[in-house]
Amino acid sequence: MIERAEQNRKFQTKPCWSWSGAEALNFSEQANGFKRPVAMLPTKQSSDDQILAFLVDLRARFQRWLHQDEFGPTRRQQTAALRDLKKSLQTLQQQLAKGAPSQREQLDAVLRNGNGRSSPTLERIYEAASDLGLEHQISAASNRKIDWASEIKTCAETTMAQSQSLDTNADSEILLVAIRHKFDLLQTCAPESGLAGTERWLNGYWNLVDKTLCELNERGGAEERVSLKLLVEQLCEFWERETGRRVTAHGMSKLETQRTETAASLFVTAALEAMLPEPSWFDEHREFSHSVRAMTFLPSRQADRARHILTIMRDFVKHRPKMLKTWLHKK
Asked: Which candidate, 180, 215, 222, places its Cα nearest to that of 82?
């Protein structure tokens, strides 16, 4: 029953078609909230104005990270979109295979000789099916031939629309897999390849979506709070550059809670709290505010954030030699 409930929950999840992770940086918020963190720096290499400018810029980027990751489509929503796209690709492949040899020959001829040879493959299939259907209607061909061309056109249109409407996070996942497997998502099949080349590309695209879906499913577990980790690490690096002191972090158990207690961790916590978006921002993103990782950033979850900050800072301290080596190499 538990497994069945989990399966039902997965299939009830709806994709976030046409969602974009792009968002303009917002520098309009006042810097007053950073006076306390700036005052907590024991020594400074830069002026207060320079430090405030850095923190304001980092806050704008942090809020854009939040929009893209924690307050964007969940992994389950991304996999729902990929499942739909995979199913549409399979339907298109099956519809192409249903054609009689004579019908496939006619479609092959249109693909070889028709317009739009430089168009992406899905668009070429759509245009070829449209042209073939029009030819059938003009020549008063049988309904079976007209219907076959019409079904291919419909399937190609659906697949093309889903491919172009994937949320940008899921689209990025596909792109990463495509790069590893050297698959050209925008490939334009040469005219001489005809229907056979088109079907090979469709099969490759189906395999690509399937691999991406498998990778997302294999990750499992809780989704990482990417924005929080990135922000805390940048604040730690800033502390070390600005103060010349090494970051330290440890926790103290008291009344079954944990809190950070070093100068560096207190600064990082205060700066992070000042960087949280205004309530209106959370209202605008309420659609994605119910996931566990998104709830970490709600104003009322300060204790949860403190625990995560402590874990990230401990990891930063543990891996500092490697991180410093990488940072020096970049410089």
From this structure: 215
